[in-house]
Design a protein that fits this description.
6 helices
Amino acid sequence: ALDFKCEKVYLLAFIGKRSGDVVYMASSNITAVHAFTTRAGGVSQGIYSSLNLGEMVADDHENIRENYRRICAALDIPMEKLVFSHQVHRDDIRTAHFGDTRELFSPITYEADGLITDEAQLPLIIYMADCIPVLLHDPVRGAVGAVHCGWRGTVLGIAGKCVLEMRDKFGCKPKNIRAAIGPGIGLCCYETGQDVADAVYNLIPDKASNYVLPKGGKYMVDLKGINRLVLEKAGVLSDNIDVSDECTMCLHEKYWSHRYTNGKRGLTAAIIMLKGTKA
């Protein structure tokens, strides 16, 4: 069984938490119920060991159901009310309602890499295995968001677009929104080609050199840093953004890494839910 010690505080306000065998990371920057899951605490076996939350991989369905039961129990969230996203590496954002809840393994009828809601007891969930997860919380208005930021979503500015969507749909003030950028592949490991570098320069031509470092004929790219900048440009205050320094490829025993495993892996998740009308 996989296990991790949680005494270490990584960067800023990210801390490890444990409930039974389930281990997850959280940010004290966000007071809504939330988690960035690790691989620890589930019942899946082999390459999916152990807390695999990915429905689309070839893991045993009953093991996946038990994994969901465990993380939902750890967070005290209603498993039957989870809202999922069909992630397609774009900048589609969906305003989630209770009608979007679904049973595990049933079809998702929409595509979205960002979810937002102002409804209480409605947990939003996104998946990752190197991509950057961003959770958003406005404790003043009472609204939350969950954003899946692969490199394509990152250069489309999806994290900032979610902030502006929360402003437009719920009346949130960006200066009140708290953000947590969770574990994902770091600058240390994210080696890319010219296409990704060019996309970053198109997004932030005046600052791209701070986040794209040449390495031979390739480039090392800081996706977390870019997403932080995108959030700031959308009006989120710098002091309200928490960034994990954990790299999923470096820490492939703690998190799944698509690159490290050549795609033979499960999925971790980022989850957020408002407890009441304001969390």
